[in-house]
Design brief:
heterodimer, A: 474 residues, alpha/beta, Alkaline Phosphatase, subunit A, eight-stranded mixed beta sheet, three-stranded antiparallel beta sheet, 11 helices, globular, B: 831 residues, mainly alpha, two-stranded antiparallel sheet, two-stranded antiparallel ribbon, 35 helices, 6 strands, 1% strand, flat
């Protein structure tokens, strides 16, 4: 166990860091002790996480069961799916109606139908989201890093002028905003690896261009002034201090980013009309567009969310059926187009796209069939009103995940849930630490990657036990 | 023997002239104070660029004399029998060019020494041996010249002797020089027997020091060997072979168990490593099915050597109480007698520093000037830049004790002081206005109690008591954060209380110990539960790694010397007992921990580091103990502690910077003065507010004391809700205890400052105000330099700024000037 970095580690790291620094990377010196391990071959450089925030029901999306149309007086317990099924590009594999475009590209990826979320008692969305994104159950005695921060820390940016971890579409001013903040962080890895937040993709450009109202000419002049004052200031007084150095480097990096042609990737107005229109189903769709543009220009980890807001979007405590019609419209076209665009530009091979949600939903079961928890939605046994027709309870024992690109097997279905209620996982259950390690594996990050925090090893997955599911790879 | 001369050789006069010039340069540089780098003042650091350029040629130039003179020496050896060999002219040329190159590189070296933050000891050695070598070289050269001119053969042996000495001297100088650049362990770290070669450090035990296998070990050596062996076992084997987990029926954490062996019989055959199963297993190739450790890395060769040696020596195991394999700090307070000092040092801290400096051969650096001092101490005590008027009044103040008087004055600004230290305590007590837990009433805010406690300078023991045995207003700390749902057993609120109290007040890490027996200390799972039971109505079931064990323990202190807890009484009684016990004067650890934290806050680094690991070795045990003891005796008065520290010359010395941040946390760190600190998010925002205008307004203030807070035209950042600006600049989300801010800048922060809406609109508004107020460019340049950096613009800076502003400054240009000045490290660093 290293108690601190020794010089050799430092030099070895520095040489790698120098390459990044040449392209204006910030100085990557760290107080953390790393326990690096042997390298594994990567099959992906970039990850795009499409986050279905709020709990996406599997039986009404990617794992449909028997359809029961709405009728007054129907038995709630009879309802497994509120949509018809539609065929996909894969023989014998059906999606819930409304996801047809994604269905057509299923030959390009893998469908996991056996995700099992954690049991954490009385359900709170943000706790499960925290768990999904960090692989640790809150609270923790140290601040656990987001998976995007782990990746940013281990691999750095692909293109040094594009922040390694970009988070698109989530505002933190909504309900449970504080809880969301708790995991949108690099935690002990340090702010440097935190998310670059773009709450609204249509104004994403503002985050990466000179301040509003400042011309490029003035921006350049201002920076020149700064550099001249810096070189003429009594700064020699501070010698070559690491703090001074890190300030200088970070400013340089920000300047290069804000001025770089790559910043145009954040500008959705540059997108051809036809393509823009396909993506423009709302904030999420445009987020997919930005993700694609960033991935093509060299981003490392991008998260695009449908946005979590209590009782909105996928958080269907009522009107589940009606609201899902709209949710599907939001995601179907943009996601299919995203995959096709990436494929066309040749980026899909090295870009891993994941669609996931913190847990699933069911009409009857809150939690797990064997371990029900305190109910939060009043579901009448006999449905009279359409508002009660839908998957309104939080279900943790099954769920769907989509994977595309980045070395993932094509046209594959993994795992299975029961055809009858409870529609729980019955084959190949897969848990969050396996999902994380599978992502890390694709990126070439070893299973035992960890840091000593207050002398305790803190692994990418708890105790370093997350196992990569090799079967998912081609 | 015929001695031939060569035309290439310059005459005696030329030799003397060149040497004299070189030596005069050397002496001039050496004694002009030019090389006293760490304390270099502004005049030295603003040296002419060409000197800097030459200085940086040193690492390049040094290779010439080294190569030339070494080669000359080798050739001299090769031709030792015949002075006038055919190689003669070549050797002569090598010597002369070598010596000239040596003189030049030494001059460059002295120029370079003022630039970097090199360790003084090593630099001194390098410098003086280098200069001595050059003198040798010059003498060598003179001798050689004399031989060639006078053909006096009797001088040959002197010349050769000198040349060899010179070559040796160069090698030594070169070695120290390389150590300066690459670090002392650059070479040795790659050697298989180096401690750095492996991850595990087998204590300080060195097998190689026992070359003779037949020697009997002394009791002392046996004990050391035993600790080394146990450390190796603990790091590599305990996970599966200790009370925690007993694989293969084998335990390696107790003497009797080790010698009993496992399911396959004994594992250690004293005196015969070859026959010992343990030795066989740890030496197998990693992929062998019997190889140990079966999980984790193969043992380092050095560790295997220790085990081998231990078994060969009969596997000695000392009788009686086993020495801990971890460093454990004393619990008891200690009041070391102040050292007598010849110097006129009245502040006790300075007496300790003086003793430390003498011991470590460090010269007292200069005390900083008034301006630097006032800026530093204002930021450190009240978190704000001094106003321009204050700087002027202070510099004009003639009272000899004005620094102490002003420190007192700053400490008396109760609200400014409380607002500043609120951030420190909010981080440590993970108190915030918003955050997780509040949504389900699983968390309580203690700001009102905290602010008032800091403002009234509540004695620290009382402060701790009120947090541990709380009122409604202060219960938020031990109540922890409760999320909805089921949490890991090690994170239930009682365990959070045990962990947080240990970390914050005792500098002790109980986090590991909340799940299992610690691998990094002697603390056991049951100790953590016993401590947590104090905060529970009834004893908690011990969970090991979140699995119930069916076992329970009573409630007790971590150190029984500090008193007992009545397990059967109710929670509030137990907490009251804990509050009394933990604040006893006998608990030296409590007082050392806070003194060390306050020290780290103002000095940039703790006497013990990390500040949460108080079992680590302090760089001065005496200083720490003395301060802690006297702090406790002096009513645990934090303001008085701050007064004592900031009035010391130790605090007021020139600040120190490091190129490599790892050196700061290294355990062989040497104290040479206050470390430069980056302004915290709050200090930066408040400084901006002082000069340009508010980043935050009263309407954003989350906590308003009933009285008016100071008289600032801006809302102080510690009182507002966390936001993207403060987050980017390093204010933590206070979900967990946080006892130090990040010291390095990063891209997200730079982006926030470069194009962030909040900062840019603030300076834009400020620019308009300044345009009205100061009107002319000259005035604006003068004021921004004075107000932000506390000095006048230098001519070059003035020209650069003037070029931008022109004669009649536009608001845009003023704004850009503000931005540039505020982003200078000189502004953002507390030096």
């Amino acid at each position: 166990m290293h108690t601190s970095w020794n010089r050799r580690d430092f030099l070895r790291r520095s040489s790698a860091a120098t390459i990044a620094a040449l392209a204006a990377g910030a100085p990557i010196t760290s107080f953390l002790s790393s326990c690096a391990s042997k390298k594994i071959n990567s099959s992906a450089d970039t990850v795009i996480l499409l986050w279905m925030a709020g709990g996406m029901s599997h039986t009404d999306t990617f794992d449909p069961k028997k359809f029961t149309p709405f009728s007054k007086g129907m038995m709630a317990n009879d309802v497994l799916s509120t949509f018809k099924s539609a065929p996909t590009a894969l023989d014998g594999v059906y999606f819930s109606k409304g996801l047809d475009s994604i269905g057509k590209i299923m030959d390009k990826g893998t469908l996991i139908r056996s995700y099992v979320a954690a049991d954490m008692g009385h359900i709170l969305h943000s706790r499960h989201q925290y768990h999904w994104h960090t692989c640790y159950k809150p609270p923790q005695s140290v601040t656990a890093p987001h998976i995007g921060s782990w990746i940013a820390k281990e691999l750095g940016p692909v293109n040094p002028v594009i922040p390694a971890f970009v988070n698109i579409g989530q505002r933190f001013t909504l309900g449970e905003g504080e809880e969301l903040k708790a995991f949108h962080t690099a935690g002990f890895l340090g702010n440097e690896f935190g998310p670059f937040l773009i709450p609204d993709p249509s104004s994403g450009l503002e985050s990466v261009k000179p301040p509003i109202g400042m011309s490029i000419g003035r921006f350049e002049k201002r920076n020149q002034l700064y550099n001249e004052l810096m070189s003429n200031s009594a700064i020699g007084e501070f010698g070559s201090d690491y703090q001074k150095e890190s300030l200088r480097r970070s400013m340089e990096q920000a300047y290069i980013l804000l001025k770089s042609p790559e910043a145009a990737a954040f500008d959705l107005n540059n997108e051809p009309r036809e393509s823009y229109d396909v993506y423009n189903t709302g904030k999420f769709g445009l987020g997919c567009l930005m993700a694609r543009r960033l991935a093509e220009k060299g981003a490392r980890f991008i998260s695009v969310t449908t946005e979590y807001e209590p009782f909105k979007n996928w958080d269907t405590h009522d009107n589940g059926h009606t609201r899902l019609i709209d949710m599907k419209k939001q995601i179907d076209g943009p996601i299919a187009r995203l995959i096709k665009d990436l494929e066309r530009s040749g980026h899909l091979d090295r870009t891993l796209v994941i669609l996931a949600s913190e847990f699933s939903r069911d009409m009857m079961v809150e939690g797990r069939p064997e371990l029900k928890v305190q109910e939060q939605v009043n579901q009448p046994d006999i449905i009279q009103d359409i508002k009660n027709y839908g998957m309104h309870r939080h279900f943790t024992d099954g769920g769907s995940i989509l994977l595309f690109g980045g070395g993932i097997k094509k046209g594959n279905v993994y795992g299975k849930t029961a055809e009858e209620r409870p529609c729980k996982t019955i084959e190949k259950p897969i848990m969050i630490d396996q999902i994380h390690q599978t992502i890390y594996h694709a990126l070439g990050i070893a299973q035992d990657t960890h840091y000593l925090v207050e002398k305790r090893p803190f692994y990418t997955t708890p105790d370093g036990l997350g196992k990569c599911e090799l079967e998912l790879f081609a | 023997m015929k001695i031939s001369t060569t035309k290439l050789f310059p005459g005696k006069k030329a030799i003397i002239v060149i040497s004299m010039i070189g030596i005069i340069c050397l002496l001039q540089l050496t004694f002009s104070g030019f090389v006293q780098s760490p304390s270099a003042t502004a005049n030295a650091s603003n040296s002419f660029w060409l000197w800097k350029f030459f200085g940086r040629l040193h690492p390049l130039a040094v290779h010439f004399p080294l190569a030339l003179l070494l080669f000359a020496a080798i050739l001299e050896l090769a031709t030792i029998k015949k002075f006038s060999s055919a190689l003669r002219p070549g050797i002569n040329l090598l010597v002369i060019t070598g010596v000239i190159a040596a003189i030049f590189s030494a001059v460059f070296g002295l120029l370079l020494s003022k630039e970097g933050d090199y360790g003084k000891d090593l630099l001194g050695l390098h410098q003086w041996i280098g200069i001595a070598t050059i003198l040798l070289g010059t003498i060598t050269w003179l001798l050689l010249n004399k031989i060639l001119v006078t053909k006096n053969e009797s001088l040959v042996k002197y010349y050769r002797g000198m040349l060899f000495f010179c070559a040796a001297g160069l090698s030594i100088t070169g070695h120290f020089g390389a150590s300066l650049t690459h670090g002392k362990d650059y070479l040795s770290a790659t050697l298989p027997w180096s401690a750095d070669y492996t991850g595990t450090k087998a204590g300080d035990f060195n097998v190689a020091s026992f070359k003779n296998d037949t020697t009997r070990l002394t009791k002392q050596q046996e004990a050391e060997l035993n600790v080394a062996v146990r450390a190796i076992l603990a790091h590599n084997c305990y996970k599966c072979h200790s009370a925690e987990k007993i694989k293969g029926d084998l335990r390696l954490d107790r003497k009797d168990m080790i010698f009993k062996g496992g399911e396959n019989g004994p594992v250690v055959i004293p005196g015969n490593a070859g026959e010992s199963e343990i030795f066989r297993r740890i030496t197998l190739p990693a992929n062998h099915k019997d190889a140990m450790p079966s999980k984790g890395k193969k043992l380092a060769d050095a560790d295997i050597a220790v085990i081998n040696f231990w078994i060969q020596k009969g596997a000695p195991w000392t009788e009686g109480v086993e020495k801990s394999i971890f460093r454990v700090a004393e619990l008891q307070p200690r009041n070391p007698i102040l050292p007598l000092t010849a110097e006129n040092l009245s502040n006790p801290i300075d007496k300790w520093t003086n003793q430390y400096f003498i011991k470590n051969k460090i010269a007292w650096p200069q005390v900083v000037d008034d301006r630097t001092f006032l800026r530093r101490v204002s930021l450190d005590l009240i978190g704000m830049l001094p106003k321009q008027e204050e700087v002027e009044t202070f510099t004009k103040d003639n009272r000899p004790d004005k620094r102490s008087l002003w420190i007192r004055q700053l400490l008396n600004r109760q609200d400014d002081y409380a607002t500043h230290w609120l951030s420190f305590w909010n981080d440590a007590l993970r108190n915030d206005y918003t955050g997780t837990g509040y949504i389900t009433e699983g968390r309580f805010n203690i700001t009102d109690w905290l602010y008032k406690s800091i403002r009234s300078n509540k004695p620290y023991d009382q402060f701790v008591k009120e947090l541990i045995s709380p009122t409604k207003a202060s219960k938020g700390f031990i109540e922890g954060i409760k999320w909805r749902g089921v949490v890991n057993a090690s994170q239930r609120t009682e365990m959070q209380a045990a962990q947080n109290i240990s970390q914050v007040f005792l500098g002790l890490n109980l986090k590991c110990t909340s799940c299992h027996n610690s691998f990094i200390s002697d603390w056991k799972l049951s100790d953590a539960y016993a401590f947590a039971n104090i905060f529970a109505d009834s004893s908690l079931e011990i969970n090991r790694c979140d699995k119930p064990t069916g076992k329970y323990t009573n409630a007790r202190m971590l150190w029984k010397e500090l008193g007992s807890i009545d397990s059967s009484s109710k929670k509030s009684t137990k907490m009251a007992q804990l509050a009394v016990n933990i604040t006893k004067p006998a608990n030296g650890r409590l007082y050392r921990t806070i003194v060390n934290r306050i020290w780290a806050q103002v000095m940039g680094r703790g006497i013990v580091e990390p500040v949460d690991a108080m079992d680590n070795e302090p760089w001065s045990q005496d200083l720490l103990d003395w301060m802690a003891f006297n702090f406790q005796q002096n009513k645990s008065d934090i303001k008085e502690l701050l007064y004592l520290i900031t009035t010391s010359s130790t605090y007021q010395m020139t600040s120190v910077g490091f190129k490599d941040p790892n050196k700061i946390i290294s355990q062989d760190y040497k104290f040479t003065g206050m470390l430069r600190k980056r302004m915290s998010a709050e200090q930066f925002a408040d400084a901006a507010g002082t000069i340009i205008g508010p980043l935050f307004y009263d309407s954003m203030v989350m906590y308003k004391p009933s009285h008016k807070i100071g008289d600032h035209p801006f809302a102080r950042a510690s009182l507002v809700v966390n936001n993207s600006f403060l987050t980017a600049l390093g204010r933590p989300n206070r979900e967990t205890v946080s006892t130090g801010r990040e010291s390095q800048a990063n891209l997200l922060q730079a982006l926030e400052l470069t194009n962030g809406e909040r900062f840019n609109s603030m300076i834009s508004k400020g620019a308009k105000k300044w345009q009205k107020k100061y009107v002319t460019s000259d005035r604006i340049i003068k004021e921004i330099y004075r107000q932000a950096l506390g000095r006048d613009a230098q001519p070059k800076e003035y020209l650069v700024a003037k070029k931008l502003l022109g004669d009649t400054p536009a608001t845009d240009s003023i704004q850009d000037l503000f931005w540039s000045v505020m982003l200078l490290p000189e502004f953002q660093i507390i030096y």
